[in-house]
């Protein structure tokens, strides 16, 4: 079969285009494009394009399509260079689905030709053949059902992988932004703090000099009176009273800016290794500090932090996990929000429970809140990816996350993670 054709036990040779139809291939190729590829195509053994969707792409991932060890075609997925890993995953998924379709269609065509070839057999032979065909049909039906299930599972895996990739890219961008802000702000901030400290010493000396001059001219009543008038005109007494407070407030403001930059840098964990030991109480405090401006005025934040062991994981992703849950709580109620955060160790797990006094999550929707793109908010108010990303982060660490009802009737999201060994 050096021409890329397929040999059947019964009947003539067929090419790849005989085994696959456009109605079967178009949805798969369109799904690959929807998953982020710029172009997806199926080529025959001669390199001719049978079907293709999309256009463009500077980076290409390809996999040969074989049947019984013989090459019969090639699957190609193209996109941007930055998405090389995602393209490789997409072409592997596409290859698995198309290979299963080819095998299933081949067996169905074989069944039809076998049926045609036995119409002239004796009645007994026909009965035996019919029995074998019935068994084969059951197997093919089971294969088709399993194929549909596998396609659905792989599609869900691809959607989740796509969501995780987007979130990782977002976190990388935040980390780079935080590093850039820290570098650009810390340098001038250091100058400002140093200069304000030096200015404080200079002002102290100037005030001392003014006192010395005042004492020196006290012996000359006329000159002393003129100096007093000029001092009142320049409001020197007011200036002397405000100078120390102004310098103190300026230094406090500079320290506040320094802390904000440090919190942002710490939240992104740009300098930390990808995975390590994480102290959850500290990460929760850092998350609340970074999100302070987003929390509505008058919100009551109740911290119920227990003594808990460290966990092993990616601190940046855990901060993103907590930020997503807190953001959901903030959006649940604009005024009078009560946010309760509890940490504890129970049943060999480190648990973080974040509850609010909002409208809560209806029981029939609690099993769906972690599904990709599911949201109960109006169009434009949410993407439905926050809790999906949270679910993926927790499960990747070997933990579990669930939605329930808080004591006050609001939503309660509970995260359970294994302690570090």
Explain this structure to me?
It contains 9 helices and 11 strands. It has 421 residues and is of the alpha+beta class. The strands form 3 sheets. A 5-stranded mixed beta sheet has the order 6-8-9-11-10.
In total, how many beta strands? 11
Name the shape in a single word.
elongated
Return the CATH topology of the largest domain.
Beta-Lactamase
Cα-atom radius of gyration: 35 Å
Q: In whole angstroms, how far apart are the ends?
A: 57 Å
* CATH class descriptor of the largest domain: Alpha Beta
Helix proportion: 40-55%
What is the number of independent domains? 3
* pLDDT < 50 stretches: 1-11, 378-385
Compact overview of the structure:
This protein is an alpha+beta fold and 421 residues long.
Key attributes of the depicted protein:
11 strands; five-stranded mixed β-sheet; Beta-Lactamase; 9 helices; four-stranded antiparallel β-sheet; alpha+beta; Heat Shock Protein 90; 421 residues; elongated; disordered N terminus
SSE layout:
Elements: H1 16-19, H2 22-34, E1 39-44, E2 49-54, E3 59-67, E4 70-79, H3 84-117, H4 123-216, H5 221-233, H6 236-268, E5 276-278, H7 280-290, E6 300-305, E7 311-313, H8 315-332, E8 338-346, E9 349-355, H9 386-396, E10 400-405, E11 411-417
Parallel strand pairs: 6-8
Antiparallel strand pairs: 1-2, 1-4, 3-4, 5-7, 8-9, 9-11, 10-11
Helix pairs in contact: 2-3, 3-4, 4-6, 4-9, 6-7, 7-8, 8-9
